[in-house]
Every structure is written in structure tokens, then in C-alpha cells.
Specification:
CATH topology of the largest domain: Rossmann fold
Distance between the termini: 46 Å
Order of helices and strands: EEEHEEHHHEHEHEEH
Bound molecules: adenosine-5'-triphosphate
Largest sheet: 6 strands, mixed
Helix content: 25-40%
Structural class: alpha/beta
Shape: globular
Strand order of the largest sheet: 5-6-7-3-8-9
Strand content: 15-25%
CATH superfamily of the largest domain: P-loop containing nucleotide triphosphate hydrolases
């Protein structure tokens, strides 16, 4: 399935009634089986764009549509946030099953489906644990398993690992790639972390400060296995520094404009 974002803009009403233009002129296509990462400074509209793609917000201008669904239906969207929003009173199994309860699946089918995602996410042995009995990384795995268990057409992730410590975060990025390789879902992923973006993405979309516009789109032409090590390490660094330069230049322009006023 493919998502087409055409000329999209978003304005909010600020607290004292003034207009806040969060995004303008966004043109982007997320192809089938593509992993696209959004990076950009705080407040540039990354979450806004993700939420519009997920149908939680409507664009003020432009359109977002999907192509390539076999039947004429709305796409199923799996979402994972930094605050995963697990139900504290539900076990791992019950949390993962949540999105399946209102479907036509039988109890047996739900149990089977949940078990397969427990295995995929490496949560065996923790089926009956409550969220508070798990580490942060494991809770995120439950959140990802829950999003995948509905077998979405599209996966949207908003800084899912930013609350984790550096080591857990690195491990989770690797885990996520394994899960993604098994499903190859069209994915839109938001992060502040440039290395994370280069590690995960097929393409990195660099947004400018607010109102967010696309400054550039960088295709990461590196194998997924061992992307940041060995022979790839130098190229990996080059990509990260290219993206950093784009963000830095945008921030410097902002400072200069501020001084000129
Ligand atoms: N409901 C809202 N009402 C008014 N302004 C909003 C609302 N939601 C977001 N904004 C503003 O729109 C801009 C974009 O916000 P958004 O959260 O999409 O940015 P972001 O790039 O995800 O930020 P961060 O990286 O800090 O999470 C910000 O200036 C924010 O203050």
C-alpha cells in the first residue's frame, strides 16, 4: 500500500486565537514496503504530519490518500507512541489482544494471533505479566506487538524509543528492524535522533523549522544488515553528517533572520 501526501498544510488556532502554521506544502509518497523517517527541529510539525497520515487530524490544505488496497476500504493503521498507553491492569496478552477484540475473529483465532506476535516480539514467558512488571524496552515491544497484531496496512511510529536509555534504544532499533523485515509494512517514523533515522530508514525526510517544509529527502543507500559498522561505517557517518548540516543550516538561517529583525 502506498500513501500519497499532496500539497498538505496544517494550521492550528493558537491559545490567544492567532493562527499557527505548523506545516506547509508537504509533498511526499510513502511507497509500499518503504520505511520513511521524519527528522527536524522541535515543533516543526513531525507529529502533526504523522497524525494526519493516521487520520487523527485533518489537513487544513492539500490531500492525503492511499493507493493499492485490494478492496475499497479504509487502511488499517498501527500506531506506536513514546507514551505507549498500555492498559496497566491488562496482562501482556490482554494488551496485545486489545485491538482484535472488536473484530470478527474468534477467541481461538485471537489467542493464536496474539501468540504469534508474542513470539515475533520476543515476549515469551511474559504473557501474563502486567506492564509495571516489565522494563521500558519490553513495554515498548508490547506496544509494537499490539500495533502489528491488527495486521495494519501502515505503521506509524512517533519517537517510540526516546524515553529509553541509550543501550536499550540501540537494541530496540535492531529488534524493530527484525520485526519490520518480517512484515515489510509501509512505515512512517518520527525521531529527533539523526543516527536512528539513518539506521532505520530507506529515506530520511528532513523538515525545516516551523512552518515545517521539506528541506530535502535523503535516500539511505546502505544494506540493512550491519549498516553502521565495518565497511558501511564511514558512509553511515556521512549520511548522518549530511542530515545534521541541513538541520544546522536551517537553524543558523533562523538565527540570522532573528538578528536582522
Ligand atoms: N493542538 C494544537 N493547537 C495549537 N498548536 C499546536 C497544536 N498541536 C501542535 N501545535 C503546534 O504546531 C507545531 C508543530 O507541533 P508538532 O507537535 O507537530 O511538532 P513536532 O515536530 O512533532 O515537535 P516535537 O519534535 O517537539 O515533538 C508546534 O509549534 C506546536 O506548538
Amino acid at each position: 500500500m502506498k500513501v500519497v501526501i499532496e500539497q498538505v498544510g496544517k494550521c492550528y488556532q493558537g491559545p490567544d486565537g492567532q493562527k499557527v502554521t505548523a506545516l506547509s506544502d508537504i509533498n511526499l509518497t510513502i511507497s509500499s514496503e518503504e520505511f520513511v523517517v521524519l527528522v527536524g527541529p522541535s515543533g516543526c510539525g513531525k507529529s502533526t504530519l504523522l497524525n494526519m497520515v493516521g487520520g487523527l487530524l485533518s489537513p487544513t490544505s492539500g490531500t492525503i490518500y492511499v493507493e493499492g488496497l485490494e478492496t475499497d476500504r479504509d487502511p488499517v493503521v498501527g500506531m506506536v507512541f513514546q507514551e505507549i498507553g498500555l492498559f496497566p491492569w491488562r496482562s501482556v496478552v490482554q494488551n496485545i489482544a486489545f485491538g482484535l477484540e472488536e473484530t470478527r475473529l474468534s477467541q481461538e483465532q485471537i489467542a493464536e494471533r496474539v501468540q504469534s506476535y508474542i513470539e515475533l516480539a520476543g515476549l515469551q514467558g511474559f504473557e501474563n505479566s502486567l506492564p509495571r512488571q516489565l522494563s521500558g524496552g519490553m513495554r515498548q515491544r508490547v506496544g509494537i506487538a499490539r500495533a502489528l497484531a491488527i495486521q495494519p496496512d501502515l505503521l506509524l511510529m512517533d519517537e517510540p524509543f526516546s524515553a529509553l536509555d541509550a543501550q536499550t534504544r540501540t537494541l530496540m532499533q535492531e529488534e524493530l528492524l527484525k520485526l519490520w523485515t518480517a512484515t515489510r509494512l509501509s512505515t512512517l517514523y518520527v525521531t529527533h535522533n539523526i543516527e536512528e533515522a539513518v539506521f532505520l530508514a530507506d529515506r530520511v525526510v528532513v523538515l525545516s523549522r516551523r512552518p515545517g517544509k521539506i528541506i530535502d529527502i535523503i535516500r539511505i543507500d546502505l544494506p540493512r544488515e550491519g549498516r553502521d559498522t565495518g565497511e558501511c561505517a564511514a558512509q553511515f557517518k556521512n549520511y548522518a553528517s549530511q542530515i545534521w548540516q541541513l538541520i544546522r543550516k536551517d537553524a543558523e538561517d533562523a538565527l540570522r533572520e532573528g538578528e536582522a529583525e
